[in-house]
Amino acid sequence: MSVDQSAHPDDRTPDDRATPGRRGYAKGKARREEIVRTALRTFAEQGYRSTSMREIAEAVGLSQAGLLHHFRNKDDLLTEVLRLRDAEQSAFNRALAEENGMVALRRLVDLMELNATQAGLVRLYTVLRGESVGGEHPAQPYFVERFLVLRERVAGYLRHARDVEGVIRADVDVLVASTLIMAVMDGLQTQWLLAPDAVDLAGDFARFMDDYLRGLS
Questions:
Q1: Euclidean distance between CA atoms 40 and 38, whole angstroms
Q2: CATH class of the structural domain 22-71
Q3: CA–CA distance, 40 with 78 (Å, rounded to integer)
């Protein structure tokens, strides 16, 4: 009795040997990512409140019931959108976590340079943050926590520059200084989104930091 060598398991490619369950999981994961990226663009363009699940479903070629198979509701989808937004900057954040003092403060200019290449993410952040200010919003806890964490992180850089490096005056209130730096970052990003040809996002911020840090010394 002969054996069909073409059917031997060892001759099959990894894709051939993949089980239907594994293929289904990969397909489902790809579909979820497509939905999240579509939601990111839509939320950035028209806001969270003005976007319906039906719109997102139609944009990815699904029925609303099909979309709900992947995400229970719009809040669930928003959570994944914010997670993706953070993941896009995770490499930079890891590198920045290893810096401190004046080096880390100067690296904030690099962050603005990165943001200048990610207009969609900056728009998403700006639109959702603005929405979360008025009334209850599912993203409000995220933005409150993010503000407090980032303000303390930048204050830590300033504190190190003041207490360890000795390049900032002893009377500087690092929390106030951190709040101001973050306000300028947020304000410049909003102006840049409104008039990108009139605002040099990274360049204008770099000039501000040069002048401001010089005034703190």
A1: 5
A2: mainly alpha
A3: 8
Architecture of the domain spanning 73-216: Orthogonal Bundle (1.10)
**pLDDT given for residue 25 in this prediction:** 63
pTM of the model: 0.75
Residue 44 CB partners (closer than 8 Å, separation 6+): 120, 121, 123, 124, 127
Q: What's the count of helices (H) and strands (E) in the chain, helices before strands?
A: 11, 0
Q: Which residues of the chain have pLDDT under 50?
A: 1-9, 11-15
Q: According to the model, what pLDDT value does residue 162 have?
A: 98
For 196, phi then psi, to 5°, come to -60, -30
Segments making up each domain of the chain, as ranges: 22-71, 73-216
- Tell me the C-alpha to C-alpha distance, in Å, between residue 157 and each of 110, 141, 184, 212: 15, 25, 17, 14
**pLDDT at residue number 24:** 58
